Amino acid sequence: MILRRFMQHVREQNWFAVGLDVLVVIVGIFLGFQVQAWYDKEQSKENEIAYLNNLNEDFETSILMINDSQVERDFVEKGLAEIPNSYAGNKDIDELSSIHCRAVSISHKQANPISELPAAR
Predict the structure, then answer these.
(1) Up-side HSE of residue 1: CA atoms within 13 Å toward CB?
(2) What are the angstrom distances between the C-alpha of 120 and each of 43, 60, 78, 99?
(3) Are 113 and 62 within 8 A, CB to CB?
(4) CA dihedral 87, 90, 95, 96 (to 10 degrees)
(5) Dist. CA 71–CA 64, nearest whole Å
(6) pLDDT, tens digit only, all 121 positions of the chain
């Protein structure tokens, strides 16, 4: 329809109408680009919010893992520190408690609770 009107105005040599038709098309294209830019900006904001939420969840999980690891290390350290005190009283090895035995059994583990954060990929 616009092309038909445009061609009619050219045939009639109505240059004002031709210019107005061209201006309407240019303004329409400009508005289309502006709407697309606005949509892209909004989509980018949504992606950023989702990424930051995922990163926050990953950090909270990492903090929990670190805290759990610290509790286990404290348990092992305390249990191992009590063993020499048990021997100082000339106690037999059968007299070690289950806490001491567990501390010895997991003392060789090297805690490395931090892994790659999935959100960073």
Answers:
(1) 0
(2) 19, 14, 36, 39
(3) yes
(4) 0
(5) 11
(6) 677 877 887 888 888 888 888 898 899 999 999 999 999 999 999 999 999 998 898 888 888 887 877 777 777 777 777 767 666 665 555 566 777 777 777 766 665 656 666 655 5
> How far, in Å, CA of 29 to CA of 43, rounded?
21
Query: What is the Cα–Cα distance from 56 to 65, expressed in whole angstroms?
Result: 14
Residue 42 to residues 28, 52, 70, 77, Cα–Cα distance (Å): 21, 15, 42, 52
What angle, 0 to 180 degrees and rounded to 10, lies between the N-to-C axes of helices 15-88 and 2-11? 150
Instruction: For residues 99 and 79, give the distance between their C-alpha atoms in angstroms, rounded to a whole number.
Output: 6
In sequence order, the 6+-apart residues with CB closer than 8 A to the CB of 48 are none
Task: Look up residue 19 and give its two tokens.
Answer: 């210019």
Can you read off the two tokens belonging to residue 32?
Answer: 């289309």
Q: Whose structure tokens read 């109505």?
A: 14
